[in-house]
Amino acid sequence: MPVKVRTFKNKMLDACFIIAGTLILAMSVEMFVIPYNILSGGVAGIAVAAEPFFHIDKTLLANALTLILFFVGWAVLGKEFAINTAFSSLLYPCFTTLLSWVDFNITVPPMLASFYAGLLGGVGIGLIMRAGASSGGMDVPPLILHKITGAKISTLVVITDGLTVLIGILAYDLNAALIGLISVFASGAGIRYTLEAGQGSSAKSVQIISDSYQEITETINKELDRGVTLLDAEGGYSSDPKKVILCVVSGRQYTRLLGIIREIDDRAFVITTDASDMHGEGFTYSSPNI
Q1: Do 47 and 183 reside in the same domain of the chain?
Q2: Is the Cβ–Cβ distance between 46 and 167 less than 8 Å?
Q3: From the CB of residue 204, how many other CB atoms can be counted at a distance below 10 Å?
Q4: What are the residues whose beta carbons fall under 8 Å from the beta carbon of 195, sequence distance 6 or more?
Q5: Interval 234-262: pLDDT, tens
Q6: How many C-beta atoms surround the C-beta of residue 189 within 10 A?
Q7: Total structural domains in the chain?
Q8: Are 115 and 186 within 8 A, CB to CB?
Q9: N or C: which end of the chain has fewer CB within 10 A?
Q10: What is the CA radius of gyration of the chain?
Q11: Are residues 31 and 145 both part of a single domain?
Q12: What is the pLDDT of residues 85-132, one digit of tens each?
């Protein structure tokens, strides 16, 4: 019974993170991105860039793109993607529609608006990621291309954002695109600091003791693209042979790792320590799929 209660509390906490993160992301769009025509990343940036060509309401277009990309991602990336993305993808249009009726009456220079748009949006996305979920939207095209081509997701994200900026230059001018870049960098900082808040170091060394070590190992390799080391151990009381999984993950992946462990073996014993000065694949140089 205690395990079920703990699992339920974790699910409720994750739901709160997703709701709060999606609301903050929607606020960044309706308070700054759309009123100031900020060429940021994501569906809102696409809506801003496309509006001069198609003359479609920016909030409406952003909401339509979010839902379309969700269903495309579901069809191409599968059920797991849909489960991790559905809540935020459905909440986002609701929040942006409601907030579009609010007159925030904020007057700031465009560069400051771009900074706040990126920072708020990054915090929102970071909260959603801490729940092990995804905000969907423009995350979908890089994920689909990664599945088809095997190219690094980080590279595909840069290409996607670059195309958004290019469309923005054609729709507005170079000055607007440069202001939009402030939002992109501020968003990255917001995501990073939100994921690391309360987590100590940006990387974690994790030891897992579980009879389901094989399944946990395979899932870590598949979903997190991280290698593990299996250590031989012996039970101090029973003298039974044990396997200890040792792995190092980034702060961004740590929450998802705990979720994987809970899903497979909610009685697993987990020891976590902050890791620093990592060297090797995925830390001092990139893994092919990161």
Answers
A1: yes
A2: yes
A3: 20
A4: 126, 129, 130, 251, 252
A5: 877 777 888 899 998 877 788 788 888 88
A6: 15
A7: 2
A8: yes
A9: N
A10: 21
A11: yes
A12: 899 999 999 999 999 999 888 899 999 999 999 999 989 988 987 887
For residue 16, the SS3 value is: helix
Identify whether 237 is part of a domain.
Answer: yes
Cα–Cα distance between 200 and 182 in angstroms, integer?
A: 27
Predicted structure pTM score: 0.69
- CA dihedral 103→105→108→113, nearest 10 degrees, is -10
CATH number of the domain to which 208 belongs: 3.30.70.120
Residue found by looking up tokens 């905000």 in the block: 135
Which structural domain range is residue 31 located in?
A: 2-195
First to last CA, the chain: 38
Bridge partner residues of 234 (DSSP): 241
147 residue type, one letter: K
Q: How far apart are CA 186 and CA 111, in angstroms?
A: 11
- Quick one: which of 222, 270, 278 has its CA closest to 249? 278
| Alpha-helical runs (H) found in the chain | 2-28, 42-54, 58-77, 79-99, 110-130, 140-149, 153-171, 174-196, 213-219, 251-264
The long-range contacts involving 281-286, CB below 8 angstroms and separated by at least 24 positions, are: 281/227, 282/225, 282/226, 282/250, 283/203, 283/248, 286/152, 286/154
Same domain, 216 and 85: no
